[in-house]
Specification:
70% helix, 9 helices
C-alpha cells in the first residue's frame, strides 16, 4: 500500500509528510484534511509533496500502510516470542487494549477510513478490506494451532469483539471496554479449546 522510494531510505521531507498526515487523518478524519494543510504543517512546498505522492489518495494509502505495518509488527512480536498460540492471542489482545487506552485514541483507523470511503471498489476501501483479511487470517491461524478444528467461526467472533472494543473505546470508559474485551477473549479461547456445543437459549 505504501509507495517505495527508488533509492535508499525515504527522504526527510517524505517522512514529515507521512507523519503529519498520519496525525491529522487519525485525529480529524481523512476528508476533513487537505493537501495544502498537510504540506504547510510538514514544512514542505506543494511541489515537494507531489514529488513524493501522486496525490491525496496515494498519501491516504501510505497512512493506512503505516497502520497496517504497526498491527503486523504487534502480531509478529506475539508470534516470535515463542508463546503457545493461546498466549500469542492474549498478547495480541493486550496490545490492542493498550492502544485503546492510549492518549488521543479515537477508534480504529481502518474502520474510520472505510466509513469515509464506502464504495467497495475504491482503493482506500480495498486497502481496509485487505488489512482486515490479514487480521482474520492471522487469528484463524493461531486458533487453528490451539486445536485441530475449524477455526474460522471463532476467528470471526474475535474480529467482531475487537471491532466492538475499538469502536467503544473512544465512547465509553476505555478501561472498562478493555476489561470486557479481554474477558471476552478468554471466554472465546475456553470455548474453542473444549469445542463444545452450546444449547439454544430460546432468547
Amino acid at each position: 500500500m505504501v509507495r517505495s522510494e527508488s533509492k535508499g531510505r525515504p527522504s526527510e521531507a517524505r517522512s514529515r509528510l507521512l507523519d503529519t498526515a498520519c496525525r491529522l487523518f487519525y485525529a480529524e478524519g481523512i476528508r476533513a484534511v487537505g493537501v495544502d494543510r498537510i504540506a504547510t504543517e510538514a514544512r514542505v512546498t506543494r511541489a515537494t509533496f507531489y514529488r513524493h505522492f501522486a496525490g491525496k489518495e496515494d498519501l491516504v494509502l501510505a497512512y493506512l500502510g503505516e497502520a497496517d505495518a504497526a498491527m503486523r509488527r504487534r502480531a509478529d512480536e506475539a508470534s516470535a516470542a515463542g508463546l503457545p498460540a493461546a498466549d500469542a492471542i492474549r498478547a495480541l489482545s493486550k496490545s490492542i487494549a493498550r492502544g485503546i487506552q492510549s492518549p488521543g485514541y479515537r477508534g480504529c483507523a481502518f474502520l474510520n477510513a472505510v466509513a469515509e470511503f464506502p464504495d467497495p471498489d475504491h482503493p482506500i476501501h480495498l486497502a481496509v478490506i485487505a488489512h482486515r483479511q490479514w487480521l482474520l487470517d492471522k487469528v484463524t491461524e493461531l486458533l487453528g494451532d490451539i486445536r485441530e478444528t475449524p477455526a474460522e467461526a471463532a476467528a470471526h467472533h474475535y474480529v467482531m469483539m475487537r471491532d466492538g472494543a475499538t469502536a467503544a473505546g473512544c465512547l465509553f470508559d476505555p478501561a472498562m471496554v478493555c476489561d470486557t474485551f479481554l474477558h471476552g477473549v478468554e471466554a472465546l479461547l475456553r470455548n474453542h479449546v473444549i469445542d463444545r456445543e452450546i444449547e439454544p437459549t430460546g432468547i
